[in-house]
Fold these 2 entries.
Entry 1:
Amino acid sequence: MIGSVVHLWNFGTGSATATVDLGSSRPFLAWGSITFTDSLAVYDRDNGSAIEVYQVDGVTQWRAGDGGDHLGPANADSNLRPGGIRGFGRRVTFRLRSFHVDDLEHYGVGCVLTLD
């Protein structure tokens, strides 16, 4: 097994991405976790953040949620992607984002563990 961790941070830009390259295609577990959130104003219902397994080998992952105040219609890129998956591939891209960029700064980590 090989383990990789990537750190992400977002300072009022809306989103950040980081990719883990496993060197060759292989089975893996990938998950993300927000490790710190700093509310720059008032932490209220307009605030929110997510870390997602956004793409595997350039293919955007299935949507885990859509609609509401901060997400888009069914095919929008702004929809939530899964926070963790079991998959197969070489490059795993994580996305950390804020739903109200004027109020939040946050940090997160993306972790990938190979299963071979």
Entry 2:
Amino acid sequence: MKDILLVGMVREKSRRIENKMTRPFDTTCLYKIYLDKFERVQEQKNPFSDITMAVCPEDETLWEMSQNTTVKITKRNEHSVSDNVKDIVEAHHYLKDFDQEYVMFVNGCFPFLTTKSIIDFAEYFVKAEEIKSMTCVTPRQNYFWDSGTYKPINNTDKNNIHTTSCKPVLESVQCMHIVNRNKMLKNKYLWDFTNRNPYLYILQYGPECLDIDNMFEFELAEALWKYYR
């Protein structure tokens, strides 16, 4: 049985959207959505041996909001939430205090990612013994071009006029990853890109794949949130 720690992580500083996790998002905020999602995961049958949210006490707004949740809160140091972090170990130093073999990261910037998808992702990993790490991708069918050579990547037929005839390209969806905790802390990377490291888990393109990185995406997600809710 694979032993998995489920981790969420937040910080107040955001380069592209000021106070992204705590600014108003319809009648809530992204951090409240994130916490609520983790609470609902731990209330259901799930494959995790522990669940935590990593928060820095110096991020006062986030820290205060974290006092009203049933989710375990793990302290991040102030350096780990700064712009001076040099590697993945500095960002996730708190993982040294856990002993699970695997850690699953869930990104809080995907408000439409469901608890079902989180649990399904982890259960798929647990059942597939040969998989040692995993990440999400979504198939995109369009004309894609190499930014260096300006040559087509997935459409080599000069007579093709339909994007549906193009071979799908797999685009990373940075919403969920599972890695070996000890190897990550030792090697300072998530995976080495050898066979099935990582294994690419298909997440069908849709609202769950919407990552909020800029104000356009924030406002788009908020409008969709109002529509779906």
